[in-house]
Amino acid sequence: MARVHLDDVTKRYEDIIAVNEMNLEIRDGEFVCLVGPSGCGKSTTMETIAGLTKPTEGTVTIGETDVTTLPPKDRGVSMVFQNIALFPHMDVYDNISFGLRLRKFDKDEIDRRVQEASDVVQLEGMLDREPNELSGGQQQRVAIARAIVRKPDVFLMDEPLANLDAKLRVHMRTELQRLHKQLDTTIIYVTHDQAEAMTMSDRIAVINAGELQQIDPPLVCYNEPANRFVAGFIGSPSMNFVEGELTGDGLTTDHFDLEFDPTDLDTAADDVTMGVRPEDIYLEREADSATSTSETIEARTDVLEPMGDEIFIYLSLDGASSEMMTSDEASTASNQLLMSVDPDTEIEADESVSVVLDRSKIHLFETASGTAITHGIAALSAQQSPAAGSSGVAPEAESGGQHE
Ligand code: ADP
Question: Are residues 307 and 345 in the same domain?
Fold first, then answer.
C-alpha cells in the first residue's frame, strides 16, 4: 500500500500538451478512477506513474520516494492493460508466475503466491489450461493474478475491462471491488466509462484536455460538479444545459424564467447556464408537493424511449424536433430537455405537458468559464418575494443549498 503524488506534472509531445500541470494526491489504499473522454490524457498520466514515460516537468512520488526518474521495475507498481497479453503457449500457472520466475524467486514461494493469487481471482482448477481454453473474463483474471503475485504497493489498471462484453464487464467491476477490499492496495484505474468510475471508486479524478477538473467521491462529482464539464460528463443520460442571463429577478432563458434572489450568488457573470438532470424534472401533475419546484414550463413530448425501469422523454420547448438526436445531444440543445419518468407513467408522444424542475437540484454555471456557481436555488427562493412559486406549489427552502 502506498500513496501516489503527482506534483505539477506536465507531459508535452512536441506541440501537444497531453497532461497539463497535474496535481493529484492519491491516498494509501484508495481506489481512484481517472476518467475523461478519449485523448484527455488519462493514459499519459498513468504512464508517468508507471514509469513508462517521463514527465516533461513535475515530480511523481510513490510512498515517500521520488520515482520521477526510476524505471518501472523499481517503483513497486503492477500494471494491467486493456489488451491482455498472455503467452499463448504457456499454461495459466506459467503465465501468472512468469515475472517471479524471471526474478528467480524460490519455487516454493512461487507456488504459494500463484495459489494465493488464483484463489483471489477465482481461477482454481484452471492453472493447467492454456489461454485459448479460457473465456475473455478468465483471461483478464489471469492478467490480474499476474499483477497480484508481484505484491505491488500500487496497482495501475488501464481500461482492463474494455474488451469484455457488457455483462462480463459489470460482473468484473464487482470482482475488482472485492479484490480491492481483499488486497487493501492502492488502485489507480483508467476508464472513459463514467458508470464504471461511479460504481467502483473511492474518488473519481475527472480529466479534460490534459487538466484535472475535479477529484472527489462519486456522489460529490454527481451532486456538486465543480464545472459544466464534470456536470455533463458524470451521470447518464447527461445533464440538460440551457443558456440564460442573470437578472435582478433570477435567470431568463429563451424558453422559461427561473425566479430567485441572485444577490448572494458568488459570481460577477451575467451569462449563466442552467443545468438540470433528467431525473430532476417532473411532470407537474406528478410533482411531489414537498419538493420545491420551479415555475411551470410548457413543453411538448417529442420522442419517448421506454427503457424498462424508466422512460426517457425528449421534450421540445419550441416545437423543434429532437429526432435523430442522441440523448446527449438532446440534453445540450437549448430548445430541448430530456427527462426521465417512472415506467408506469401514462404519457404519449406529441402531447402537451407542463413540467417543473426540482429547485434544490438546479445547477448554475458561468457560461464563459463553465465554473459552478451554485448547486440548488431552493434556498435562494426563501429570500424571494411571494412572486416566486407561480407553479402554485409552495416553494420551500431546503438542503440543496448554495455552493460555498
Ligand atoms: P487518453 O488515455 O485519455 O485517451 P492519452 O493520454 O492517450 O489520452 O493522450 C493524450 C493526448 O496526448 C492525445 O492528444 C494523444 O494524441 C497525445 N499522445 C499520447 N501519446 C503520445 C505520443 N507518444 N506521441 C504524441 N502524442 C501522444
Answer: yes
Q: Indicate the pTM of the whole model.
A: 0.87
Amino acid at 178: R
Q: Are strands 211-216 and 240-247 parallel, antiparallel or unpaired?
A: unpaired
For ligand 1, pick from 6, 9, 12, 43 the residue to mutate: most ligand atoms within 8 Å of CB. 43
- Ligand 1 shell residues, CB under 6 Å: 13, 16, 18, 36, 38-44
Nearest CA to ligand 1 atom 21: 13
In which element (H, E) is residue 190 found?
strand 186-191
The CA distance from 347 to 343, in Å, is: 10
Domain shared by 239 and 349, yes or no = yes
What's the grid cell of residue 97? 508466475
Q: Residue 181 pLDDT > 60, yes or no?
A: yes
CB 258 within 8 A of CB 362: yes
Q: Is residue 98 part of a domain?
A: yes
Range of the domain at 329: 229-388
- Name the residue with the closest Cα to ligand 1, atom 22: 13
CA distance 260 to 277: 19
Residue 109 lies in a domain: yes
User: What is the maximal distance between C-alpha atoms in the chain?
Assistant: 80
**C-alpha Rg value of the chain to the nearest Å:** 25
**Same domain? 235 vs 320:** yes
Q: At residue 95, what are phi and psi to the nearest 5 degrees?
A: -65, -45
Instruction: Give residue-wise pLDDT tens across range 233-263.
Output: 999 999 999 999 999 999 999 999 999 999 9
* Total count of domains within the chain: 2
Type of residue at 32: V
